[in-house]
Amino acid sequence: MNIILLDQDTTSDHFEVQLNPGAHRHCTEVLRPEIGHSLKVGVYGGKLGLGKVIEHNETRTVLDVTLSERPPRKEPLCLVLAMPRPKMLRRILSASIELGVEAIHIINSYRVEKSYWQSPYLKPDAVNSTILTALEQAGDTVPPSLRWHKGFKPFAEDVLPGLVKSYPNAWLGDHRVQSRLRTNRSDEPRLIAIGPEGGFIPYEIDLLQKAGLTPVNLGARIMRVETAVSALLGRLIA
To answer: Is the dihedral of CA 70, 72, 75, 78 positive or negative?
Structure first.
């Protein structure tokens, strides 16, 4: 972890805190700080700063925290993703958070296996653990907006049109078309929709287009969803 995230309910920029067991274990096994050392910290959803070690032993670590920096800005980018295999989803979520994506919508699709939605990887504790680990890696404190949509049609007809208003540069990956993705300035709001393995079916593509997405060809190579997402985010954020 590049920062220690604190789940602290406070409005103060200066306070003392005892680290949770996981962070204490990381200090003991990896950082091995001495009294007086400063560690990079951040309050979940809030500011970043430094925590001066005032107590560290086998049972606990206590920091004197001073917050002074705002978290890094999010990329004005929305990822709409048909539910991939749950283990792959964890990696995609981590990469998206580390890259600073501000909104992620996980949606259903005809070609999505129903069993994916029952995976233990999607339980709140597991998802939160993935988010926290990615934030600590990125030196960030603010998670993306993450929403789940088990109904494809309600998402496409009721939710997506509103998203397109917020992200007017909105594309849909579709191997059937010839036009290629032309990226805009990275400070402009952008949305990209990626289908499941095998792609969206024609009915779904039609609904997504009606909601305002522009189909684009993502290239001649057939990529796994995980590879396609990482490559696209790299292009859109660069």
So the answer is: negative
